[in-house]
Amino acid sequence: MKCNENNYIQRLQRQKEDALEFIVDKYLPLIKGIAYKILSPLQNDGIIEECVNDIFLSIWNHSKKFQGDAIDFRKWICAIAKFKAIDYYRRTSNGKEFSRDIIEETVEKSAEDELVILEDKTELIRLINQLEPVDRKIFIMKFYLGLKTEDISKKLGLTESAISNRIYRGKKKLHTKAANLDFGGSLV
Amino acid sequence: MKDIYELLNDIDIDETEFEEIEVDELEKARVKKALKKSIRQKKKRMGWKKNVAAAAILCGLSVTTIGLTFPAYAGSIPVIGDIFRFLDNGRTGLYDDYKEYSTEINMTDESNGIRVTLNDAIFDGKTISLTYSIESEQDLGDQPILEDFLEIKGVSSQSGSAHISKVDDHNYVGIVTATNLDRDQEDVAKIKWGIDRITLPDQQYKEIKGSWKFALALDATERKDFISEGSSELAGVKVNIGKISFTPMSFIVYYDQIISKEVRDKWHAVDVEIEIRDDLGNSYSGEGNGGSGDGYNMNWSKTFEKLDENASKLIITPQIMLREHTPDNFGSVEITKDGPKEIPIPEKPGKGKEEFVLEDIVIDINGLSTEE
């Protein structure tokens, strides 16, 4: 059996290495494009390379969690690439003295951002899981994929103020729950 | 609870906002290598107990294998997964299907701090292609020259080609081919490949002597021969298509040229190149294997990329080139007792070169697949 357009997702989910090679051949230009767009301001090609490898490795390790067809797959890996690259950006730029000010000017740092940066992403995921489905989508788009409120509103067919409202309410919820975390409260 | 990867399934991302970046084969190869390394490390960590058991058995076995000059090692990660494709680099597509039908050899021989690994081998009945990789502690420059020989047992005349490419400072990959010119196709080829010397043009032609040797027998890939009767003739040049041999990854066209006396009297040499397309509009890229003859009447063969299985006709266009030999482009010597003696080029009226195209030869290959 050879890996081809029709079976590569299946083979990837069965952890066949040729499928991994196949998706590198097929999607490397796209994945690199995404990573490059987000990470090029750091002016560090090493980071981009590391991030691209990490993206493919994540796709490989989590391939079983994917559901859907080839078009969905493309979207799914784009989303992974974007969230990984943003994650790399945040981590790297956070560790650098000079870029800190610039980031504070351009990107609003929220409690969620801090949470993403600092640690315990599993806890944040746990919190996000407790939100309503719509809010969940909004939060992932906003904080994992860095989408603008405007774009989110277009996608979900809600007004911008509705999105802002939901984010505000969601943040409040998260704050309370995150505060519980700090006190060692269990949320399960 | 869903993790981020599951949650991302529900997100409808607009993927048209992303732009692709051009990536070359080398970069793809590098990513693949890094990935394989990480996933294998992971597997290793998970299965270390098994490895201990395997190591114990290997200890017992290795006593008996000492002394064998066959230092093949398993499980090494080739620098480049598909060397055929890597060296072709998407230019012709001729080698796209070679890797799939080739045999993984992965034999390594080390000499003078340089490890040569024979990665894949394939034999289509006519031509042997080997891919190899070289790992060297010292930088060998951009274009090291291998003084190598690839010998097919029992074959008196053969032609070949070689290509090497640098991957990084310590790694090189290459391909070497040998074509059997004097006989029809064989089913098995016994071959020897060896390198005596590596010359480094970048370092004042420094020579690294050593001995890297490989020997193996290769079964030919499956093939179907198709005898055709097509020919085309114009202005004293006739081209006959003899046989076409189809393999899973390529097809080989055998053809010959017959040159009239008038043309012989006018020109020093005549070359025929063929171009092939099919009735579906595909054109096939190919590589000549060389040929033999007296310079006028010649037998050639040329290997083309895999045939489109839906094609029912091959349209072959012979291109003729009539050439004049001048001291700049041609030299020939005769080996005598007193050493080589130069043969003067005879005077002929044809000057420069002249090119023309013969009428297409159409070969009906319908029913090829049902012929079995």
Outline of the structure:
Chain B: This is Anti-sigma factor. The complex is a heterodimer of chains A (about 190) and B (about 375). Chain A contains ten helices and no strands.
The CATH architecture designation of the largest domain in chain A is Orthogonal Bundle
Biggest pleated sheet of chain A: none
Output the CATH homologous superfamily of the largest domain in chain A. RNA polymerase sigma factor, region 2, helix turn helix motif
Instruction: Please estimate the helix content of chain A.
Output: over 70%
Count every beta strand of chain A, where a strand is a DSSP E run of 2 or more residues.
Answer: 0
| Range of strand content of chain A | under 5%
Structural class of chain A: mainly alpha
Order of helices and strands of chain A: HHHHHHHHHH
- End-to-end separation of chain A: 45 Å
Helical fraction of chain B equals 10-25%
Number of domain units of chain B? 3
- As for the number of domains of chain A, it is 2
Query: What can be said about the biggest beta sheet of chain B?
Result: 6 strands, antiparallel
Apparent shape of chain A = globular
* Number of helical elements of chain A: 10
- Give the CATH level 1 class of the largest domain in chain B: Mainly Beta
- CATH class annotation of the largest domain in chain A: Mainly Alpha
